[in-house]
Amino acid sequence: AQKVTQAQTEISVVEKEDVTLDCVYETRDTTYYLFWYKQPPSGELVFLIRRNSFDEQNEISGRYSWNFQKSTSSFNFTITASQVVDSAVYFCALSEDNQAGTALIFGKGTTLSVSS
Amino acid sequence: DAEITQSPRHKITETGRQVTLACHQTWNHNNMFWYRQDLGHGLRLIHYSYGVHDTNKGEVSDGYSVSRSNTEDLPLTLESAASSQTSVYFCASSEASVGMGSPLHFGNGTRLTVT
């Protein structure tokens, strides 16, 4: 079973539109972390945010906001007033405990295209 | 500034050859990871290490090996390259466990083509 599901493969919007990227996760751990990463066309992976399983407060950072809901196992990412520079692949990730320790499991990513 | 460096950036090799991708970090992190990125699959974990002489298999470890002889380096070896291993490979490190919220710092990736 997929541990992190990003059902939206590709999203296209026009500048200034708001857009929400969905992330649904599955875990048996009671303590875990969720992350969002951005991969712009240049290819590097940039850390955006982390959230632990005990903190369901929404977070806002400029035009970015994140909505974490344990009841629906979701950690959605909203970009307000999108800009062309937001065009990128966005990955949601979940920390997963295993016998050796903890690793980060990624979703398949959502490609966001913002046109002017 | 501390960083994580992957080399080479691009590599073309033939089927059956042994290939080693280098990863070097100056963060002094104990935790290091190798992922591969493929269209439609996202990032998948190959191998990881939590310290010197520690190595562990990830989701897609078949055909790959790693060794950790010091803190700074985690080279990834493809024992006998196959066309299915054509991919972009990312190395990453973290200061503490991701289970404690420590984010991964990624290298810029190595694009490997197996012909």
Plain-language structure description:
The complex is a heterodimer of chains A (116) and B (115). Chain A has 116 residues and is an all-beta fold. In chain A, 0% of the residues lie in helices and 53% in strands. Chain A has no helices and twelve strands. The relative contact order of chain A is 0.34. The model of chain A has no long low-confidence stretch (mean pLDDT 91). Helix content of chain B is 0%, strand content 50%. Chain B is built from no helices and eleven strands. In chain B, strand 5 and strand 6 form a beta hairpin. Chain B starts with a strand and ends with a strand. The mean pLDDT of chain B is 94.
Topology (SSEs and partners):
The complex is a heterodimer of chains A (116) and B (115).
Chain A: E1 4-5, E2 10-14, E3 19-21, E4 24-25, E5 33-39, E6 46-52, E7 59-61, E8 64-69, E9 74-79, E10 88-97, E11 102-106, E12 110-115
Parallel strand pairs in A: 2-12
Antiparallel strand pairs in A: 1-4, 3-9, 5-6, 5-10, 7-8, 8-9, 10-11, 10-12
Chain B: E1 4-7, E2 10-13, E3 19-25, E4 31-38, E5 42-51, E6 54-57, E7 64-66, E8 76-78, E9 87-94, E10 105-106, E11 110-114
Parallel strand pairs in B: 2-11
Antiparallel strand pairs in B: 1-3, 3-8, 4-5, 4-9, 5-6, 7-8, 9-10, 9-11
Shape of chain B: globular
Rg of chain A, Å, rounded: 14 Å
Beta percentage of chain A is over 45%
Main structural class of chain A:
mainly beta
Query: Structural class, from helix and strand content of chain B?
Result: mainly beta
> Spans of chain B with pLDDT under 50 lasting ≥5 residues?
none
Main beta sheet of chain B: strand number and arrangement? 7 strands, mixed
| Overall average pLDDT of chain A | 91
Oligomer: heterodimer
Chain-averaged pLDDT of chain B: 94
Give the % helix of chain A: under 10%
- Give the radius of gyration of chain B: 13 Å
Count of β-strands of chain B: 11
Tally of strands of chain A: 12
Give the topology string of chain A: H per helix, E per strand: EEEEEEEEEEEE
Task: Name the beta content range of chain B.
Answer: over 45%
Q: In one word, what is the shape of chain A?
A: globular
Q: Helix tally of chain A?
A: 0
